[in-house]
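Table S2 (continued). Query chain:
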Amino acid sequence: MQVEYKGFVPQAGWTPKRVAIGSLDSKSFFDKFVATRTPVVIVGHIDDPEWKGSKWDLSYLSKQAGDSIVDVEVKDETGAFGKGNKVQMTFGEFLKGLKEGNQDTYITTQKIEENEQGAPLQLFGPPLISLKEDFPLTPKLFGNMLLNTVNLWMGSSKDGTSSGLHHDFHDNLYVLVKGKKRFTIAAPSDAPYLYTKAKISKIHKNGLINYDSNTRADGSLVDGGDSDDEEPEMDFENNQGINADLYKKLLNIDDQSGSEEESEDSDLPAPDWGTLLQKGEEEEDSEDYDLDAMWANMEALQQKYSGGSKAKKSANDSKKGKASDKEKKQDPGHFSSLNLVQVRKNVSSESLTPKNLKKDKTLVKNYPEAVKAVFSTFTISEGEMLYLPASWFHEVVSLGQEKDNTHIALNYWAHPPDTESSEAPYSTDFWQRFLFKTFPELKAVHEERNSSKEVKKGGEKKETKKDVKENVNQKSPKKQQQTTPSKGKVVQGKGQSPGGNGPQGKGKGQSPGGKGIQGKGQNTGNKGQNQPKRKRDDSQGQKTTKKAKK
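Corresponding output:
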């Protein structure tokens, strides 16, 4: 395992700061938290004018989106979610079940509409399609960060339901609309101690975790060579470095059920990368990409790994709220083998300190390296948000509101930035080229916001001290006669720095976002791996990491 993580690393007892939304703009948010890879609880919801999530109760949602067809996750025989067991029903039927007290169903990520070649046509699926007037396509807080998807999370729980410990592949802005959520998190640098289902190959500087697939730190593809190159090139003509795991990542497919033999099947169609980029390479600024050509060659793979995802579940299964045997799946590779619910029972404590972890004899016996992990547990409430950088491990325990036990959250996933610049968050234009070509509405939002920044900066008037005093005097007439004009120095009005449409790096090609799927194989602790050491940064009162040895 190659560990390069250079972001924030907590020590025992740390919990995220709580910061008011009014104190943040996109630049300060990026500089303080995104660039440093530091989780933060934000008090208040996104302040975009489109946000109307406060309206979301069962009655309103049923009226606005009740006819939407949704995939609903159901608990397995152990009473746990997160196994990929899903049935199909209308959103209205799901909401009716919640109203009647059903706590065995849960709305999570949804399939999105695709064209005939399998290319994504949406950034979110049902029921959000029917609610799109209630939230911004991408929040102002993200600035120049690029959206991956928007998702709705909704269920009912009186005593708390655990998601299981896992990590995601994108930066997450989690907006809690109803209920409470108890998070237990751990930094990407603790991944070697958390026994993921699949074997980790690399942890990037920004924390993004790779398994068998080979990506840059922002999740874009690199060739079969060393991804440490500052400006890696892709061999599009010969399709080098493209394998089944990368295909599944591009298609946003979780490989939760296939056998090891299936996942290693190399008889897969190759994408026509050469055709895709032919015109784009001839003219650097050209946006004339043949996206259909790329997706046409990936259709067969989608069918192979989705297990016939387009097939309808039986009516009986949908009505009973049970998943058929064929739909029952195992934990995805980015889930941990640790059962934190059981650990808490074993140590009779909600606090998962290293000292308490050592008290769990079963944990020490089966997962001896787990006692080295540093967990932080905290709760966010209705009206708050959590920013969690890509590949931070987290277990979410959902607690419904007292009125009807429901809990509702909306989250934005963004492609993980790999620079420290809020103006140019990505070292290549890989994602921007794909997203702005495929989703012109997303491009329009970014251009409008950046244009507004330019106008604000260019149109500001230079003020003198006299101007400043006169403005004050207008507000305070009683002091006007006592004020003497001043010939002081010129004071330059401060404006926001202009935004940008993203860097023009050397990355080539386009690809839709995905969760990233991993290869098989159990991580057995990775003893002896070079890991970042925790140290105290006295200047900021936070902990940072030393550069890991390669």
